[in-house]
Design a protein that fits this description.
GO terms for molecular function: secondary active p-aminobenzoyl-glutamate transmembrane transporter activity. Keywords: Membrane, Transmembrane, Transmembrane helix. The chain crosses the membrane at residues 37-55, 98-120, 132-158, 170-191, 221-243, 291-314, 334-352, 373-392, 412-432, 439-455, 470-488, 500-525. This is AbgT family transporter. The protein is mainly alpha-helical and 536 residues long. The protein has one domain (96-524). It is built from 23 helices and two strands. It has a two-stranded antiparallel ribbon. Helix 9 runs antiparallel to helix 11 (221-246) and helix 9 crosses helix 23 (497-524). It is globular. It starts with 8 loop residues before the first helix and ends in a 12-residue tail after the last helix.
């Protein structure tokens, strides 16, 4: 790292203009918020108190679907206390996102720990021509969300090294990688960990209205996969038409700093050498063989998967004549097949590349991967209790009914409702950067409310995803914002937060606007968002 320290929020405010002062304020406010765990604990306590107050006031609403009267039920009584104590373990164990996230992550952890994802990204980025470098780097970042946050850690130095090797600004390469992997996190060519996670939260929220409703982990896949291409194109166009011009002085300054010896080499990762322009195109024979073995193994796996899915006499074929293959357990419980695919890929690569040398290494990699999400499990425990209390008191249902009546009575255009959700989520994301935490907070309200307006949970979930990721790259509370700033200072020691914001803000705004317009066009054409998702 450079000896030049990263600027503090106070220093940013005095030197980088109005926008930076505003973001400095966001940083200070966000840092004063309690940990999401305590937010859910406090909200659970608020729900208990409000349930008593609203029950005494006789607050109720009429369900427009059944005609039944729904009243708020207090939990501050003997029966409620028993229900709270008895439900602690079931609430957590039966929390819908818990099982699917753990199942998928077991496979992803092996693919990541074996080095497969790291090597595949390095090969893809280094093999393309300079003309296609920006697009491929952007597409790799958007799709790389299969590796969760690991993609950002890997891709930022990789993008900087790739751009520098092509004679372009290393700062710009790192920013492109940051934007693609962070702002495009909720889109991907492949099903990733976010799909079952948000699907589980949507299921919990939808069941406040319809106890039998299930949101599939692939509910947004068609739109998400298409969005990956669209977002990569947007990042490419903004980069080539605008940011390349803006970074010409930055590129000159990088070269001058390098000549003066002010730059520093990227730090080494724990298990791998640093990604530099010198070693970007260096692959060992084992790595190349490992990728070939992976391609063969995944191809065989997919052939078997689709045979089991489509062959009529398959024991796993769909049993519902109307739904066909969509009723197959391979679709309705797809988290298992997804996790198994990553496991097969990781083992195939690891055995060939000799990063997995004995059977015991596989569960060790799984355990290491699960260790990384222990903070999420802690958050799930508190969130599960909050959602259960919200459901038991009927507050969510009453609020959704009243809210839908207000919105419906006001004849608010659907486009305005959609835009409102996206903008509110985008602004909230500046302070609450955890997508799962934010969706767990908002889903119990917006999902049922929109259901009463005739908008299915799959559509609401996708609206959340659009607003949630696009502002990741302009909030100082995103830990990868600081990481990217540190990367910039390796190549340009005098750079500050204003330097980074001048590059990420155009990308954030362009992605937010274009992605939302693409969503509106998709809905207008009546295309399902994913397999089995109702057409809105």
């Amino acid at each position: 790292m450079s000896s030049t320290p990263a600027p503090t929020s106070e220093e940013r405010e005095t030197g980088d203009g109005l926008l930076t002062r505003a973001l400095g304020w966001v940083e200070r406010v966000g840092n004063r918020l309690p940990h999401p765990f305590w937010i859910f604990v406090l909200l659970a306590a608020v729900v208990l108190l409000l349930s008593e107050l609203l029950a005494r006031l006789g607050v109720a609403a009429t369900d427009p679907a059944s005609g039944d009267t729904v009243t708020v039920t207090s939990l501050l009584n003997a029966e409620g206390f028993r229900q709270i104590v008895e439900g602690v373990v079931p609430n957590f164990v039966e929390f819908p996102p818990l099982g699917v996230v753990l199942t998928v992550l077991l496979g992803v952890a092996v693919a990541e720990g074996s080095g497969l994802i790291h090597t595949a990204l390095r090969v893809v980025v280094s093999k393309v021509s300079a003309r296609w470098l920006t697009f491929v780097l952007a597409l790799a970042g958007v799709t790389g969300s299969i590796a969760s946050d690991a993609i950002t850690v890997v891709l930022i130095p990789l993008g900087a090294a790739a751009f520098k090797a092509a004679g372009r600004s290393a700062v710009l390469g790192g920013v492109v990688a940051f934007a693609a992997s962070s702002a495009g996190f909720n889109a991907s060519l492949l099903v990733n960990l976010t799909d079952p996670l948000l699907g589980g939260i949507s299921t919990s929220a939808a069941q406040l209205v319809d106890p039998e409703y299930q949101v599939s982990p692939v509910a947004n896949y068609f739109f998400s996969a298409s969005s990956a291409i669209v977002l990569a194109i947007v990042i490419t166009l903004v980069t080539e038409l605008l940011l390349t011009k803006l970074t010409r002085p930055i590129h000159d300054a990088e070269q001058a700093a390098e000549e003066r010896g002010e730059t520093s080499a990227p730090d080494h990762e724990e298990d791998r050498p640093a990604l530099t322009e010198e070693n970007l195109r260096m692959y060992s024979p084992q790595e190349v063989k490992g990728l070939r073995s992976t391609a063969i193994a995944v191809a065989v796996y997919l052939v078997v998967y689709f045979l089991l899915l489509f062959v009529p006499f398959s024991p796993l074929a769909g049993q519902d004549e109307e739904l066909g293959v969509l009723s197959s357990v391979l679709i309705t419980d797809i988290s298992g097949p997804i996790g198994l695919m990553f496991l097969v890929a990781g083992v195939a690569y690891g055995m060939t590349a000799r990063t997995v040398t004995h059977p015991a290494a596989v569960p060790e990699l799984m355990a290491r991967g699960l260790k990384d999400i222990t903070p999420l499990l802690v958050l799930f425990f508190a969130a599960a209790q909050f959602i259960a209390y919200f459901s038991w008191t009927n507050m969510g249902t009453v609020l959704a009914i009243r809210g839908s009546e207000w919105l419906g009575g006001g004849d608010v255009p659907m486009v305005v409702l959609f835009a409102g959700v996206v903008l509110v989520v985008a602004v909230m994301n500046l302070l609450v950067t955890s997508g799962s935490a934010q969706y767990t907070l908002t889903a119990p309200v917006i999902v049922p409310m929109f259901m009463y307006l005739g908008i299915n949970p799959e559509t609401t979930q996708m609206l959340f995803r659009i607003g949630d990721s696009t502002t990741n790259i302009i909030t100082p509370l995103n830990p990868f914002f600081a990481m990217t700033l540190g990367m910039i200072q390796r190549y340009l020691p005098r750079a500050g937060i204003g330097t980074l914001l001048s590059l990420t803000l155009p990308l954030s705004l362009a992605l937010l606007v274009v992605w939302f317009l693409f969503f509106l066009a998709w809905i207008a054409l009546g295309i399902p968002l994913g397999p089995g998702s109702p057409v809105q």
